[in-house]
Specification:
Layout: E1 2-6, E2 13-19, H1 29-40, H2 48-51, E3 56-60, E4 62-63, E5 66-67, E6 72-77, H3 110-117, H4 123-129, H5 134-150, E7 154-162, E8 165-166, H6 174-182, H7 191-206, E9 213-220, H8 236-245, E10 250-255, E11 273-275, H9 278-281, E12 288-290, E13 298-299, E14 302-303, E15 308-314, E16 325-327, E17 334-336, H10 347-370, H11 375-390
Antiparallel strand pairs: 1-2, 2-6, 3-6, 4-5, 7-8, 7-9, 9-15, 10-15, 11-12, 13-14, 16-17
The structure holds ligand EPS.
Residues 9, 46, 48, 52, 80, 130-132, 135, 248, 319, 340-343, 349 line the site of ligand EPS.
């Protein structure tokens, strides 16, 4: 399965084409719109979110609620396009530098992109580097989620840190934590931390600043053996890290214990292996059991069958209302960087995007492992593999 996206932040629409989905997969616009709405939700967003009301259009590859096996085209329209008809027109008569953005913002793609593509108007870079693109990636992720859910794989997550405030995550079943996160404006499971995070966001907004944070994605129901140890680009941890790092503003990724593993001796890191045949009676896939999951569900680039635990660190958004120093691209004179409309904090949105890209990569890994052109064929192949794992 592969996909590409197209579209500018203030252009007419965002488009994605997904290739390699099996036939017979139930997909509905409502399922996709639910994820799009989650991405727009979240304390700390700016005025753009008051304009947009993201809805998906399914333009190919789905008939009567099920995939055909042909490429699936997804579109999310930009409502703001109505305000940018001239400034973002594809027609030559609107050419000119009259309203050019020539002051690159530190931390954005502006300067490197302008030098690389030879643009003096930074808008030609920022329109595509904008995190608006993640709307359609969330739509792709929602389709991937449909495939995973059909196989009993569930994805959720939470904001675990924001502006330096850490949430305490209680030792409760993941679905309970996911429900609690869903009820929070910051997707945070710790009410006290959430209050403090909101206070920080209000303060950052008032002072023209921005805040980053850490999101954690968890996945349950994965069979052991997705991904492979045999080649660098087949290692699932590497592929998941790439998917997460491809999200705008993500600067770091951890799996399981993550960087903490580097600080502990091996005896306090690795998850000891036991065998308990009684778990098979409860429907658990394999009799091999672990008391801990410090590995975060991945060993040797393959899933272990334990829940997948991934974290991604988001830097503060680089567009500040109190701008940082920069220089003008035309005069080379120092300036305060341009102020584009911005969000104070988009960490909750980043969680939804992180879940989406993880879903996409896992759907890809599932299709590699179980093959099949139809959902039924995938389920047959999966069941055959699980039977072998049960008796291993
Ligand atoms: C973004 C800047 C803002 C955000 C945008 C990402 O957009 P605008 O420049 O129109 O105010 O609102 O995010 C979205 C539009 C979205 O849907 O998430 C940026 O520069 O990355």
């Amino acid at each position: 399965m592969r996909y590409i996206t197209a579209g500018e932040s203030h252009g007419p629409q965002l488009t994605a084409i997904i290739e390699g989905l099996p036939a017979g997969l139930p997909v509905s616009p409502e399922q996709i719109d639910r994820q799009l709405a989650r991405r727009q939700h979240g304390y700390g967003r700016g005025d753009r979110m008051k304009i947009e009301l993201d809805r998906v259009e399914l333009l190919s590859g789905v008939r009567w609620g099920r995939t055909l096996g042909s490429p699936v085209t997804l579109v999310v329209k930009n409502r703001d396009w109505a305000n940018w008809l001239e400034k973002m027109s594809p027609l030559a008569e609107h050419d000119g530098m009259a309203e050019a953005v020539t002051r690159p913002r530190p931390g954005h793609a502006d300067l490197s992109g302008a030098m690389k593509y030879g643009h003096r108007d930074v808008r030609n870079i920022l329109e595509r580097s904008s995190a608006r693109e993640t709307a359609v990636r969330v739509a792709v992720g929602a389709v991937a989620r449909c495939l995973l859910e059909a196989l009993g794989i569930r994805i959720g997550g939470m904001v675990t840190e924001l502006g330096g405030v850490c949430a305490r995550v209680a030792a409760e079943p993941l679905p309970t934590l996911w429900e609690r996160a869903a009820a929070s404006e910051l997707f945070c499971c710790d009410d006290e931390a959430e209050l403090e995070m909101k206070r920080l966001i209000d303060h950052a907004k008032a002072s023209g600043d921005t805040l980053g944070g850490v999101v954690e994605v968890q996945v349950t129901g994965l069979p052991p053996g997705l991904g492979s140890h045999v080649q660098w680009d087949r290692k699932l941890d590497a592929r998941l890290a790439m998917a997460l790092m491809s999200i705008q503003a993500i600067k770091g990724v951890e799996v399981g214990l993550g960087f903490e593993a580097a600080r502990r001796p091996g005896s306090q890191v690795h998850d000891e292996i036991g065998y308990d045949p009684t778990v098979l009676e409860r429907g658990v896939v394999s009799g091999y059991v672990r008391a801990t999951n410090n590995a975060g569900g991945l060993e040797g680039g393959m899933t272990t069958g334990e829940p997948l635990i991934l974290r991604a660190a988001m830097k503060p958004i680089p567009t500040l209302y109190t701008p940082l120093r920069s220089v003008d691209l035309l005069t080379h004179e120092p300036y305060e960087a341009s102020v584009e409309r911005s969000d104070t904090c988009a960490v909750p949105a980043a969680l939804v995007v992180a879940e989406a890209v993880v879903a996409i990569e896992l759907a890809h890994a599932v299709l590699e492992k179980f093959g099949g052109d139809s959902l039924d064929e995938i389920i047959r192949n999966r069941d055959g593999y699980l039977a072998a794992v049960r008796s291993f």
